[in-house]
Write a structure and sequence with these properties.
The complex is a heterodimer of chains A (about 220) and B (about 300). Chain A is of the alpha/beta class and about 220 residues long. Chain A contains six helices and ten strands; from the N terminus they run βββαββαβαααβαβββ. In chain A, α3 packs across α4, α3 packs parallel to α5 and α5 runs parallel beside α6. Chain B is an alpha+beta fold and about 300 residues long. Chain B has two domains: about 190 residues, no CATH class; about 90 residues, 2-Layer Sandwich (Alpha-Beta Plaits). Chain B has ten helices and four strands, in the order ααβαβααβαβαααα. In chain B, α2 crosses α9 and α7 runs antiparallel to α9. The two termini of chain B are about 30 Å apart. The model of chain B has no long low-confidence stretch (mean pLDDT about 85). Classes of the chains: A alpha/beta (about 220), B alpha+beta (about 300). The complex binds adenosine-5'-triphosphate and magnesium ion.
């Protein structure tokens, strides 16, 4: 459950990226954050993952008010979130498997169990055969799926993805979107930011949050 | 508890991997640390050896108490009784006849002794006090010199004092050297860890974004500092050992020329452990200072 009310976000330069944004996203919902470039989609996702803080208003994620979050509590909030970044942030100094292992090392899982789970996640996104490959040698679609595998390996309750299908051809985009549908179906809250939300999930009840110049218009 | 251990083990493994990822620079850092630690350690080892040499030469703690030439049996028995009360078991008597016979035994002395009209040597006591502290010996000399029937108490105290002062100075110099090189070691570790942190900036950022705590991020770097310092300490011990092995034979030969059975002492197992432990703790300190600089974003 995510509840935002009267959120304002002003960046240090003085630019107001979000203005009076209020919304509610129920557990297990599939939500699409839409809007033009610069509308504030990434900003909203950054607030949800506590990478940035609201300037005012309140934002409660999994029962925790992010406005008043103690720094020490931050890592534990993040562990319940799966983040797929606009620029993916894969590590190119290690294999695909090791990229997926990182979140499990962070929570201190026993190596054997971690290997098993990381392989299962890679299998889910169809990359098990490429586990030893360096992500730099993967295609754009494969990199995106690897980023998703890393985001979900911890079994998060909320999955946040920023433009996950940008730069992908139709076929790769479809594979990626099907993954999100699969997580939505097992009651993971899925929130996707995209500049073209229309027709992404045909025939599905997706929640639309549309931003324009930092304001929520739908 | 098991999970905790596992996390630390994982951090240690990651630290070791970071060391072996760039073997040349790791080797150079370890060598630099090893040499920095070997220098003051060699100083301490030298002092230990000198001290052993001083103790070895025996005469350092020896005093001779000479009786008046005309001292009689009763005076002698008196002094014996007093000595036994003061320094039980730490003295022996050498009669003037025994002293003369000893002198005769020396090469070339037999004729000289034979040509003497009468025995010129006095009865004497050789004292070897357990407490060889120079000040104590000096006080003892004054006490004994005042006893009736005692002509003279001889103590090579000037030599002991000089030697002692020299050792004291040497120890101070070694302490100073140790402090300077310890600071250097911390600086070297600080720098290598800082470079590592900068090189791992991306991983640190990603790890933070997916829920890593500060402790998780810092741990491998601290272990890296500890590992590097410990290996540096081991290197220092090996350098010292190699140095002693190279120097021991010529030193023994030199000592033999002076009629001494002195053997150069190398670093003991305990010394090696101490070097490794201090390398590890200084490395930990340097790494701690360095990881404090890791900041959010
Ligand atoms: N760190 C920042 N400092 C200052 N201004 C920022 C910062 N990040 C974003 N902005 C500004 O805030 C506005 C919203 O940015 P945001 O990244 O949220 O847009 P977006 O909807 O994700 O756009 P796009 O579709 O291009 O990714 C933009 O005008 C941007 O210039
Ligand atoms: Mg964006």
């Amino acid at each position: 459950m995510i509840v935002g009310s009267q959120i304002y976000k002003r960046y240090p330069g003085g630019f107001e990226a979000l203005k009076n944004v209020s919304f509610e996203i129920a557990g297990g919902e599939l939500a699409l954050v839409g809007g033009h470039s610069g509308a504030g989609k990434t900003t909203l996702l950054k607030l949800l993952s506590a990478i940035e803080r609201p300037t005012s208003g309140s934002l409660v994620v999994n029962g925790q008010n992010l406005v008043a979050l103690r720094p020490a509590a931050l890592p534990f909030l993040r562990r319940n979130l799966g983040l797929v970044f606009q620029d993916q942030k894969l590590l190119f100094d290690r294999s695909a498997l090791e990229n997926v292992l990182l979140p499990l090392e962070i929570i201190g899982l026993a190596p054997r169990e971690a290997q098993r789970r990381a392989r299962a996640a890679l299998d889910k996104v169809g990359l098990l055969a490429r586990e030893k490959t360096n992500p730099i040698a993967l295609s754009g679609g494969e990199q995106q799926r690897l980023a998703i595998a890393r985001a979900v390996v911890n079994r998060p309750t909320i999955l946040l993805a920023d433009e996950p299908t940008a730069n992908l051809d139709e076929e790769s985009a479809r594979q990626v979107l099907d993954l999100f549908i699969a997580f939505h179906q097992v009651r993971v809250t899925v929130i996707i930011a995209t500049h073209a939300p229309q027709g992404l999930f045909p025939g599905m009840a997706a929640r639309a949050l549309t931003l324009r110049h930092g304001m929520l218009i739908a | 508890m098991k999970a905790w251990l596992q996390q630390h083990l994982a951090a240690l493994v990651r630290a070791a991997r970071r060391l072996t990822d760039s073997p040349l620079s790791a080797l150079l850092s370890i060598l630099a640390i090893g040499i920095a630690m070997a220098l003051p350690a060699a100083g301490y080892l030298c002092l230990d050896n000198l001290k052993a040499l001083g103790a070895n030469s025996g005469s350092a703690q020896q005093m001779s108490l000479f009786l008046d030439a005309d001292a009689n049996e009763k005076t002698r028995a008196d002094i014996e009784k007093r000595l036994e009360a003061l320094l039980p078991g730490q003295w022996r008597f050498i009669s003037r006849d025994a002293a003369l016979r000893q002198m005769e035994a020396n090469e070339g002395m037999a004729e000289i002794v034979a040509s003497l009209p009468k025995n010129p040597l006095p009865d004497a006591f050789i004292l070897e006090p357990d407490d060889a502290d120079p000040e104590h010996l000096e006080a003892l000399r004054a006490t004994l010199g005042a006893w009736p029937g005692v002509a003279h108490v001889q103590l090579d105290s000037a030599w002991i004092k000089r030697f002692d002062a020299f050792l004291r100075l040497g120890r101070l110099a070694a302490h100073l050297l140790a402090v300077i090189f310890a600071a250097g070691l911390i600086a070297v570790t600080f720098n290598t860890i800082r470079l590592q942190v900068l090189g791992q900036a991306e991983e640190i950022e990603v790890a933070r974004l997916i829920g890593a705590t500060d402790a998780f991020i810092r741990r491998p770097f601290c272990y890296l500092g500890v590992l590097q310092g410990a290996l540096g300490g081991l290197t220092a011990a090996l350098l010292l050992l190699a140095g002693t092995l190279a120097l021991a034979p010529p030193v023994s030969r030199l000592a033999a020329l002076y009629g001494s059975a002195f053997v150069l002492r190398g670093p003991s197992f305990l010394h090696a452990l101490a070097l490794i432990a201090s390398g590890a703790s200084l490395g930990w300190l340097g790494a701690q200072l360095s990881v404090r600089l890791i900041r959010d974003q």
